[in-house]
Input
Amino acid sequence: MATTMTPAEAWRKLREGNERFVSGTSDHPNQDASRRNSLVGQQNPFAIIFGCADSRLAAEIIFDLGLGDAFVVRTAGQVIDDAVLGSLEYGVDQLKVPLIIILGHDSCGAVIAAKNTVDTGEMPKGFLRDLVERITPSVLAARRQGFEEINDMVVEHVKQTAERLLDSSRAISAAVAEGRTAVLGVAYRLAEGRAELVSGDGAL
Output
């Protein structure tokens, strides 16, 4: 059974949860045995959160969510690949989730690594190279706009990731065009715990 929430209602619920987290008044909803049992046969999340894998960026905690509330996909630097695209399309097409959040954060190590590669010309080894190659266009786009601070580059990378998602996935771009879902870029501040909207595609 698909959620009856609109993209705007889903975003409001996430904002309210984040406000509780910031103020230290989290409800910790939907985390008891009855909720667990109710989800055995189905799931009905109201948000997809595609975020950085950083250990300080636990999506369910910072938005004060519980079991079954969010379909969460995470990679270092919230880098898109085919598995991520398939996961997000599953959330939109099969689970009918009305909202996708692209979640980045300040002082992101993956963005720092990409900036260092741009500055020095030295590529990291192993599969970290793949991450850096996918983040580098965002670093260069930020620089073209005159930004040199890492946190400005993080915001640009969130925006670029949202654009890349819509450019790469016909299913998701169609869902946005039809008003079935929205894609929002959000930047998280580690010190204060606040998640701020930085970009948006779709009706809210």
Summary: Residues 7-201 form a domain with the Beta-carbonic Anhydrase; Chain A fold (CATH 3.40.1050.10). Helices lie at 7-23, 33-38, 59-62, 82-94, 109-120, 128-144, 150-168, 170-177.
